[in-house]
């Protein structure tokens, strides 16, 4: 597996997906509309509401899952072509007694869901639903999974064990998914084989490297998932 610390155009984003033909899909779908990963919250407040384009021929509900602090809210905010819905709340001392410990820099958490929308290739709309990361929100997590075509599971190599529950829930609910390793500045580097073994992934499950803060990197992670879903449907039929 390529150096997991490199996400800016590194081959690991394209080559580690394990999906044949991903590059071709990338060329077709990377024509995203109305998205700018560098927009600030103030800029988004002034953005005109963007309706689904007439060229759109299909839509899919996609979950973005993972433990608390893995980057779900960041990824959705990075790729969304509309002002994303976020239910971030400041963590309290009461919540700290219930939730797993997080890093000192983490002061907020999603308490309901995140929501965003991205159009791929002008023809396919993905409605992105970010799930809360805490175990106590599992009932809401299961409700959000209803009708989902697939899921992108974000993991953090600094604490792989924290991702086990989210991946297990997807397997229990029979939701197809791909895995994206979110690269942090102090991420621990592992080979692809070691990551697949640690996460107990099936050979056909895509595994990519991404940076949730970077628009192109995050879009490529979603394209890898869509390619996997298309391939899964094709094999079933």
UniProtKB/TrEMBL annotation:
Cross-referenced InterPro entries: Gliding_Motility_GTPase (IPR052705), Gpn (IPR004130), P-loop_NTPase (IPR027417)
Transmembrane segments: none
Keyword GTP-binding (UniProt): yes
One Pfam family in the UniProt entry: ATP_bind_1
Coiled coil, from the record: none
GO MF entries: GTP binding; hydrolase activity
Keyword Flavoprotein: no
Keywords from the named record: GTP-binding, Hydrolase, Nucleotide-binding
Biased composition (Low complexity): 7-22
Highest rank taxon of the organism: Bacteria
Region (Disordered): 1-42
Family: Belongs to the GPN-loop GTPase family.
Protein name per Swiss-Prot or TrEMBL: Putative ATP/GTP-binding protein
Species the sequence originates in: Streptomyces himastatinicus ATCC 53653
Biological classification of the source: Bacteria, Bacillati, Actinomycetota, Actinomycetes, Kitasatosporales
């Amino acid at each position: 597996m390529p150096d997991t610390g490199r996400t800016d155009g590194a081959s690991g984003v394209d080559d580690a997906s394990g999906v044949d033909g991903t590059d071709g899909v990338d060329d077709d779908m990377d024509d995203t509309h109305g998205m700018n990963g560098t927009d600030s919250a103030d800029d988004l407040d002034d953005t005109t509401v963007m309706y689904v384009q007439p060229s759109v021929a299909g839509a899919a509900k996609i979950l973005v899952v993972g433990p608390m602090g893995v980057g779900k809210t960041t990824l959705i905010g990075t790729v969304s072509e509309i002002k994303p819905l976020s239910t971030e709340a400041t963590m309290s001392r009461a919540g700290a007694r219930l939730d797993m410990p997080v890093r000192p820099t983490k002061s907020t958490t999603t308490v309901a869901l995140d929501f965003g929308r991205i159009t791929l290739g002008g023809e396919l709309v993905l409605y992105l639903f970010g799930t809360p990361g805490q175990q106590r929100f599992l009932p809401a997590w299961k409700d959000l999974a209803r009708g989902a075509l697939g899921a992108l599971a974000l993991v953090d190599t600094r604490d792989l064990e924290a991702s086990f529950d989210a991946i297990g829930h997807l397997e229990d609910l029979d939701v197809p998914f791909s895995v994206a390793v979110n690269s942090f500045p102090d991420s621990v580097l592992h080979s692809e084989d070691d990551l697949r073994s640690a996460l107990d992934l099936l050979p056909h499950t895509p595994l990519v490297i991404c940076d949730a803060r970077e628009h192109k990197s995050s879009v490529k992670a979603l394209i890898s998932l869509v390619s996997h879903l298309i391939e899964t449907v094709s094999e079933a039929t």
